[in-house]
Amino acid sequence: MPDLTDKAAQAYSGAYEKALKDVVLRYPALAKLPTTEAAGLLQSIDFDSLFRENYGMGKALEGLAVSLAKEIIVTPAPPILPSTQTISAALQFEVDAANAQITQTAAEIKKIMMRSILGNQSEAEFAASLTSEVLRPDQINSYVNQNLRSFHRTVELQMAEANPDQLYIWAGPLDDRTSDECVQMISEGALSQAEWQANYSAYLSSGTHYGCRHTLQMFVAPSQLKNTKEARTEKGVDY
Ligand SMILES: [Zn+2]
Fold first, then answer.
1. Most CB atoms within 10 A, among 97, 109, 111, 194?
2. How far is the CA of 96 from the centre of ligand 1 (A)?
3. pLDDT (tens digit per residue) in 121-179
């Protein structure tokens, strides 16, 4: 089941994919021009803002802030919450990192485009170079997804540290993609922040692996232990 983070990352990479297709469509017109003219025109195109503004990548990032705010807050909220300023500052770092990737990719696209024009390449050859040399939409997707999830874990961990009297679970999906470490952590059920730190400190902010979909979450309702029961059955333990 895609969650809000998946959807936001999908919107971002979907916009990127559209932008790449459009760049390929623009290629023949540019390649037809005399080389100096094409070079000058290419230099004046601001792919960076085109990608972010015209294709909705910027909007997708705004959407992220909203979706994360919704995902982070459990009900009832923990007694002490990180300030919205702290949360939005931490989120801004992730947004900046994603934007930096796009800036870099935009520069690479220009370079490849110029090289293809100079080499009299066809639209298909240019498209093939783009596919093999710049980030693919699925790579952008997993990069943004990973960043957002580690941001989410960091915020949850801060909340746990600020509220040491509460209990926490390792929350997230339990399916065939769930790593053994995460199954183990889910099977632990509700533990104190100190117990999590003592046994799993390495995983609490970075996750158990790249792409890990799990995070600490305050334990407020028995229904949150549904996956715990399943994980214990899966491991053949009962405690
Ligand atoms: Zn995980």
1. 109
2. 25
3. 999 999 999 999 999 999 999 998 888 888 889 888 988 999 999 999 999 999 999 99
- Cα of 177 vs centre of ligand 1, distance in Å, is 9
Mean pLDDT of all residues in 65-92: 74
Q: What spacing in Å lies between the alpha carbon of 183 and ligand 1's midpoint?
A: 8
CA distances from 236 to 10, 20, 173, 222, 229 (A): 36, 49, 19, 21, 10
Rounded alpha-carbon distances, angstroms, from residue 37 to 29, 34, 107, 155 = 12, 5, 19, 50
Distance (angstroms) between ligand 1 centre and the Cα of 88 equals: 24
Annotated domain spans of the chain: 4-151, 165-235
Measured torsion, CA atoms of residues 82, 181, 93, 89, in degrees rounded to the nearest 10:
0
SS3 170: strand
Q: How far is the CA of 202 from the centre of ligand 1 (A)?
A: 13
Evaluate whether 183 touches 235 at the Cβ level (below 8 Å).
yes
Cis ω on the peptide bond leading into residue 76 (within 30° of 0)? yes
- Protein residues near ligand 1, an ion, with CB under 5 A: 182, 208, 212, 214
With bands split at pLDDT 50, 70 and 90, how would you rate the model's confidence at 191? very high
Half-sphere exposure of 172 (CA within 13 A, CB side): 27
For 8-44, how does the pLDDT look when each residue is reduced to its tens digit (9 = 90+)? 888 889 999 999 999 999 999 999 999 999 999 999 9
The closest of 221, 164, 229 to 191, measured between CA atoms, is: 164
pTM for the whole structure: 0.80
